[in-house]
Amino acid sequence: MVPQPKRWIAVNLLLGLALLLAACAQPATPPPSPTPTTAPALPTPTAAPKVIIFGMLLVGPYNDRGWSQAHYEAGKYVEQKLPGAKMLYIDKVNPADRPGTTASQLAEELVAKGAKVIIFNSDDHKDEAIKFAKAHPDIVVIHASGDDAWKEGKNYKGIPNLANVMGKMEYGKMIAGCAAALTTQTGKIGYLGPLINDETRRLAASAYLGAKYCWEKYRGKPAADLKFKVTWIGFWFHIPGVTADPTQVSQDFINAGYDVIISGIDTTEALREAAKATQAGKKVWAIPYDYIGACEEAPDVCLGVPYFNWGPSYLKHIKAVLEGTWKPSWDWVGPDWKEINNPDTSHVGFVKGKALSPEAAARVDEFIKGLGDGAIQLWKGPIRLQDVTLYVEEGKVATDQQIWYLPQLLEGMEGQSVPTK
Q: For the chain, how many helices (H) and strands (E)?
């Protein structure tokens, strides 16, 4: 028999050994797993913008400070606002600068360079735009001015790839006429016109209506005391040996006592001659046309400039082509009356010039407000043509067709109404 103390020692030894063996039999506790981390997301590749090339044919120099420059800068606006848009252009697209070459032939050159949209920027390009559109049904053609896409117009062609875009410059000319009437000291306003057609008649007439209203309403003088003469040069700008010289025409106005000249041509001869006359001691002012920056050439005699802002309309059309949603349309687009000089919304604007007096400027603002809210309706009867035929009846507002297709100058205007045959 084992003594008691020794027995307890043996038991303890056996228990300790059993516990040790049990511990060795347990699997080792794994070390804690590292906290999982999310791998950084790779940047989503940005899809390259769709590319669209559009071509522009400019009737004059791209930097003429007039009609063609306004279009050229509209093209740059589209490039800025629409990723992937690229402009190609050819300027001086007219018979004098490019004899023997047609606008449609030059459009072919732009298409060969990848253009999917062609903008013909002149009324002078009308027949060529139609010819080209029919020959290239896969190319979108935009004609600045014109009425071939106007279903209610006289010249509707229904060409599925042709659109017309034109600003309601009638409002801009009304404002110009008002500024002229508020400024003239002789009561004699000269209008330097290009060639004679529907467009140029209605714009000259709009200038007269604006001048007549402000002469009577703000200056309190009878319409009979206002002289408003139109002299046409024969084209949109001077072509030596072909047109009358706008410099000479401007000088003739000044020498006959016309102290405000409103320009209807693409270039700035009226402004330059007004500045020369003023430097020689006469008081003469001018209102150029087309381009927002035109007054900068002679700010001291510039009463303001009615200008086109083609950018928003061209952006709308070219974006629609890019997105596959384009449809032909006839767009006769007016000012944004909330802000007529908004570059993103207003197709027609008017910048008041440095030479416009503060009093006259305030009246011009009042006049613009009246045009915008409809309180002033200048194409409202009775309106008579130059031959005294009643054209718009008493109390009636002229229709778009009556304004667009004005057949003569208006009663009270001096100048030729139809081209010499």
A: 11, 14
CA distance to 184, 185, 257, 288, 303, per residue, from 284 (Å): 8, 9, 9, 13, 10
The answer to whether residues 293 and 65 touch, using CB atoms and an 8 Å cutoff, is yes
Please state the rounded mean pLDDT for residues 91-111: 95
Instruction: Give the span between the Cα atoms of 201 and 413, in whole angstroms.
Output: 11
For the cut 70, the answer to whether the pLDDT of residue 46 exceeds it is no
Q: Report the largest interatomic distance among the alpha carbons of the chain, rounded to a whole angstrom.
A: 155
Asked if residues 412 and 211 have their Cβ atoms less than 8 Å apart, the reply is no
Q: Above 60 in pLDDT, residue 267?
A: yes
Q: Lowest mean pLDDT of 24-38, 74-88, 343-357, 386-400, name the range.
A: 24-38
pLDDT in tens, 27-36: 444 444 444 4
Cα separation, 327 vs 313, in Å, equals 13
**3-state secondary structure at position 168:** coil
The rounded distance, in Å, linking the Cα atoms of 199 and 287 is 19
pLDDT in tens, 329-356: 999 999 999 999 999 999 999 999 999 9
At 356, the amino acid letter reads L
CA 316 to chain centre: 11
Dihedral Cα 418, 200, 385, 188, nearest 10 deg:
-100
Structure token digits, residue 284: 């003469």
One-letter amino acid at 194 equals P
SS3 112: helix
pLDDT digits (tens, 9 = 90+) for 124-143: 999 999 999 999 999 999 99
CA dist 181 to 90, 225, 287, 302, Å? 39, 11, 12, 14
**Residues 126, 19: Cα–Cα separation, whole Å:** 107
| Amino acid (one-letter) located at 15 | L
Backbone φ, ψ for residue 308 (5° rounding): -90, 145
Mean pLDDT of 175-194: 98
Tokens of 24: 């060795």
